[in-house]
Amino acid sequence: MKDYLLDIVKHTYSLGFISLVKVTGTDETTTIEGLAEDRSVILQATTKTPVADFMGTFGMPNLDKLGVILRIPEYAENANISINTQERNGEQVPVGIAFSNASGDFKNDYRFMASEIINEKLKTVKMRAVKWGIEFEPSVASIQRFKFMISANSEETTFIAKTEGGDLKFYFGDHSTHAGNFVFQPDVSGSVTKGWAWPVEQVSKILSLGGDTQFKLSDDGVAEIVVDSGLAEYHYLLPAQSK
After folding, report:
1. Global pTM exceeds 0.90
2. Which of 112, 138, 168, 227 is most buried as measured by Cβ atoms within 10 A of its Cβ?
3. What pLDDT, in 10s, does the model give residues 222-238?
4. Is domain 2-121 given the CATH code 3.30.70 in the classification?
5. Cα-based distances in Å from 214 to 85, 93, 136
């Protein structure tokens, strides 16, 4: 279970804009949902195999605290990590995680958010069907070039993405300011022409997670970055922003 917890923290709180997630677990699937505080990113994830410990619906708040606990050296080897449950309305429901080191003399408890509260705080987002203009796997070199351009235009909070001559280009700034552009992905199949603006920080941090990554853009004003961590597939949906 520890590997799944570390994976969730890495792909949510460590990004800097998702601090609360909802977990829904059954015998068939385990899903994770999250939403950036400014609603700039919607997260929908599914683990590759159901996580037996994650049964029912519960919230995971204060992911910063969970991350700190997971990194404590006392829990590095042979730790006992288990789900605490309580009886509510005649059934056992998950209420938190109990941590104990190998010798049992160092312990922590991390508390879940009840299903009624998390369902109110984090309502499931239903996305309409999107027609993707382009889909591709960004290279490490392209992501690094993106970071170079960000450093040269650090005052810009958004960038514009559109295809030109078969290449996907990213544009920073405009004719009235310092500006820059570069080819992020050459020879793409398809096109995006609307020139929507996308958040620099969020896109950059998601692309920097590592793992198998797929990038999708649509003229409908939606982008999606899919990250396969090996344990789960994380879908980050980004609505276009006003320039």
Report:
1. yes
2. 168
3. 999 999 999 999 999 99
4. no
5. 37, 36, 6
